[in-house]
Every structure is written in C-alpha cells, then in structure tokens.
C-alpha cells in the first residue's frame, strides 16, 4: 500500500438529493459536440452542485478538455446548453463571458503564467483588468492571495522562469483566485509534480476549498488526486457521461473503462485505502 495514498485526507462525499443541495452551479443538458464528421459528445448531461468537488475522468480523446473549455465559454457546443450560475453560456457573447469570468477561476495544466510578467504582476493582472481597483488595494490583495497559496512576499518580484514547478502551480492558483471566484476549474492540477509536491498541492486545494466555500470542477488522470479530492466523479465514455457519483458507487459500475481505469495496479491500492476507511458522511 502506498504511503502517498495513505497520507492523503479522506474524500468528503455528498449524496444529498438535489432539493437539499440547491440548484446546480453548472448544468449541461443534451450537449452534442462535433468537429467535422467527428462526434465527440452526444446527449451529454452533467450537473455540478454548489460546494462540491466534481472530477471528470475518461479515456484519451473522450472530450474532457473540450467539455471544460465549453464550461468556460471558450468553445461552443454544436447543440445543447451549458448553464453556469443559471446562465446559458453555450453561445455567450464577449460581454456576457467577461462578466461571467469574474465569478470563476481556472488553473490550466501548465500553469500558463505570462513569462514576461513577475509573479506579482501575473496575480494582479485579473484585478487590473477590472479597471476598478486602486493599486494599493491590488497590492494588498495580491500579497494576501500569495500567502493563501503559501508564497511569501519575497517571491513577488520573481519571474516564472525562476520558479519551481510547485511554485508555478501555486502562483497560478493565486491568479485563478484573484477575483475571489465561487467556481474553480482545475485541469490536471498535479500533473508534472513529484509525489511530495503533488501531495502538498492537493492539501492546499482541500484547505482553500473548505475555507473559501468553492465549487470545483477538475479533470485529472491521477488516481491519488482524484480519490483525495473528489466528492463525485463523472465518467466520460461513449460520447457521454456514463456514470456519475461518489467514488465508491463508481467503482461498482460494470464498464470496461471503469474496470481498466480504477482497478489497475495503482487503482487497486487506492481502493484498498478507501475500503479501510469508514464511509464518509454527507457534507451538507
Ligand atoms: N478544435 C478542434 N478541432 C478538431 N478536433 C478537435 C478540436 N478540439 C478537440 N478536438 C478533438 O476532440 C476530441 C476530444 O479532445 P479532448 O482534448 O477534449 O480530449 P481529452 O479527453 O481531453 O483527451 P486527453 O485525456 O488525451 O487530454 C479529440 O479527438 C480531439 O482531437
């Protein structure tokens, strides 16, 4: 059994029915995505509820990234709707998107910091783009976000090229949180980090999720990250969500992808850890 898995905090799962957890923060209905003749999504439905961490898994090319980009309004589906905070953004114009963007943050896989800007200026950028905040307020807010992600003021003047992989992730997370979003998107948040750094980044996400009351949508291949953070998992296969629910429920679903993904070597170890723990109670 891996220490790495054992040290991880227990996932908190929710099974409360919809009427008790409120309306979904994200609601995708009958979504179809086509690129030319290639159909990536067909009749895909998914709801993400307030305060949960929902992870999307699926084989390569099943359209996880495209789905994430559609939730951010960066790509338009061929048909169907993508509602975020109750607004359909599947064909949003630039103005609607700009307004919505102030309510969500995105952590891209590679961090995606601007290489020509210091850490401070990268984190300040979303605030400066609002053109509403005085520079002294921005300064205090940037330093606060930096301390929230474990970066001291001494890192503020550094360029991204001077940072380690773990620090780039932290600075990128601080930028994603700059406008105090209610909804956070994470694309492979621990990719490229060694196990220790990955472990501490997962703990940071757990802490921030609890302290800030965030709703989180995550795409990850990493089982340790998946099991440590996810309240529910949505499995993408055959062009739609074939199963969604707490990990224990997903593991019972008889589907070749689920068997392959969760019940290979690393998956089995993680499942053993999960089985040795008492079932977590509902979080709400
Ligand atoms: N702009 C585009 N034009 C044409 N095809 C695209 C475009 N964007 C994505 N695709 C195709 O859509 C499919 C889904 O891509 P996507 O990147 O979402 O998969 P994924 O599930 O994230 O895969 P991976 O796990 O390998 O990153 C792929 O077959 C990809 O080639």
UniProtKB/TrEMBL annotation:
CDD domains to which the protein is assigned, alphabetical: ABC_Org_Solvent_Resistant
Every ABC transporter domain range: 26-263
GO molecular function: ATP binding; ATP hydrolysis activity
Record-given protein name: ATP-binding cassette domain-containing protein
Transmembrane regions listed in the UniProt entry: none
Region (Disordered): 1-21
InterPro entries noted in UniProt: AAA+_ATPase, ABC_transporter-like_ATP-bd, ABC_transporter-like_CS, P-loop_NTPase
Keyword Isomerase: no
Organism field: Zemynaea arenosa
Source species, domain of life: Bacteria
SMART domains for this protein: AAA (SM00382)
Keywords: ATP-binding, Cell membrane, Membrane, Nucleotide-binding, Transport
